[in-house]
Amino acid sequence: MSSAGDPDQGNLSRALGSVVGMAALRAEGGVGPQLTSHTFGLLKARKTPNQSAEDQWLSSDEGTEWVLRTIDETIDGVSESPEARAKL
Fold this sequence. Notes:
The chain contains five helices and no strands. By secondary structure, the protein is mainly alpha-helical.
């Protein structure tokens, strides 16, 4: 998903697109098949040519596990915060 030539398209890579999808779906809950699909999408992104070192790491097994763990920690932190719950 390279958009280097189109400034209106932004610069969201395939790996980062999967991370965004995973975060949204994990926060929503109850959407296991879609979350699984985006997780596999992140793992498949490792085959994307000319990706950055960051995207290579994110699409590794270790990176994908880190993404899920970090999303869960963030959701847990927000759901335990009375201030955050009041704003939701």
